[in-house]
Amino acid sequence: MTVRTRFAPSPTGFLHIGGARTALYCWLESRRRGGQFILRIEDTDRERSTDVAVQAILDGMHWLGLDADEGPFYQTQRLARYKQVADELVAAGKAYYAYESKEEIEAMREAAMQAGEKPRYNGYYRDRNEPFRDDPNRVIRFRNPAEGSVVFEDKVKGRIEIANSELDDLVIFRSDGWPTYNFAVVVDDIDMGVTEVIRGDDHVNNTPRQINIYHALGAPVPEFAHLPMILDQEGKKLSKRTNAVSVMDYREQGFLPHAILNYLVRLGWSHGDQEIFSREEMIALFDIADVNKAASRFDTEKLAWLNQHYLKTDEPQSFVAEFEWHLQRVGVDITKGPAPVEVIAALRERVHTLKEMAERAKIWYGPITAWDDKAVAKHLGNASAPGVLEAARALLAACEWKPAAIHQVIEQLAVQLELGMGKVAQPLRVAMTGTQVSPSIEDTIYLTGREEAIRRIDAAMAMAHA
RNA sequence: GCUCCCUUCGUCUAGUGGCCCAGGACACCGCCCUCUCAAGGCGGGAACACGAGUUCGAGUCUCGUAGGGAGCGCCA
């Protein structure tokens, strides 16, 4: 039987980083084993599900390149099927109607807590054999086995056993006519032939209940793998308030999708000492059974390192489009400056993100907007600066406009004026950028363009004399 | 409260009884290189939560303690 995994988010928010890792692992597991990856939107919570969130999740998945083989399926479109299965369960005596109000249930829970027990349903209607009646409080509850225990071998956590006496008769159909999560997932996973259920470990405690439903339905139980949580830098639960949680936030911060994937694949999983994984390597080497049991923290510094690694080793062509997206976001008109690929070549070793790259590229697409006083004083205010600028102006007006040729001009200048490279390059750097930090001087000048470079030297000469 | 789960450098991790006075990576510090900033090279500090056991031998097995997390919904 072929392996089928599924990613089943509920559309109540954006695709967050933990969900992205779950999706990645599902995707990798299906890819390595030659199976299928299914996307299913769990939108039975009519109160909180939104179309905006559905779109955000789809966009996030697409941006990461985690394309599904099947779906997206929507649970809201499968209502008739859930009803049918629930009715079968009731007919077979494996589920029953119950009529307590929410308030009554709440009171029941509190009473149980008082008595030092788990808060749960007391089973009032379990053996009452109450027939269907039209009642606003009517729900369908699953008749959970009273005896024995449920045991399963989790591919991440290992053997897990929970006594049925710990489980109560959960609601599988709400009074509003919609199925609950625990029921809908099982019906869907059976119908969709899911063989590997890979999800967050906040679902571990639901698994025994679901296994009981599989049994009641006479369906084969899939394999389970529960992934530990991803915590923030402080070891706290990731929260929208203090962390970037949406994968699209990471896009805005200038991270490459592949860097995020590489970071995520190593968070909780490893292959010896290897840190860098191409898409193909991930697929070939990843195994859900090798995932760690413990929660891990999200370390933006390491993500930044990976991002830079890909920035400086990937073919610039492969991410120019993404870079141009960032250039536009910082208000750059890319027709008014150098080709973005050339900017990438100059900056890729000096920044960690595309956002940073775009910020620093601004100086080549428009006038210098700010002068660093210290830089001006130090490098334009010294004795040799005017001579350097003047000589450079003359040579740059005539040389071939290529970084290598410009480099020669600078060197020639240093020899001619009997100055160190620093004395020659720094005044020019300040002239080109208004600051004392930039890529190599020849790249900086080259990207500025001849006309503009000369204009900036003129401006700098005025400042040097003043 | 009850149930389930987790615990190796600051962080991500290697490690499946001897190869470990614990390896790699990020971060940090130092040196080198150098037109600035980076990148790169070299080097450094830094961990088996604790306590009992089992064993000739334990980071690795068992039990306990402590700490952390998740769940206990007509949310997913």
Automatic annotation (TrEMBL):
Belongs to the class-I aminoacyl-tRNA synthetase family. Glutamate--tRNA ligase type 1 subfamily. Its EC number is 6.1.1.17. The lineage of its organism: Bacteria, Pseudomonadati, Pseudomonadota, Gammaproteobacteria, Lysobacterales. Residues 3-305 form the Glutamyl/glutaminyl-tRNA synthetase class Ib catalytic domain. The keyword Aminoacyl-tRNA synthetase applies. It catalyses: tRNA(Glu) + L-glutamate + ATP = L-glutamyl-tRNA(Glu) + AMP + diphosphate. It comes from Rhodanobacter lindaniclasticus. This is Glutamate--tRNA ligase. NCBIfam families: gltX_bact (TIGR00464). One of its GO terms (biological process) is glutamyl-tRNA aminoacylation. Keywords: Aminoacyl-tRNA synthetase, ATP-binding, Cytoplasm, Ligase, Nucleotide-binding, Protein biosynthesis. PROSITE patterns: AA_TRNA_LIGASE_I. ATP binds at K240.
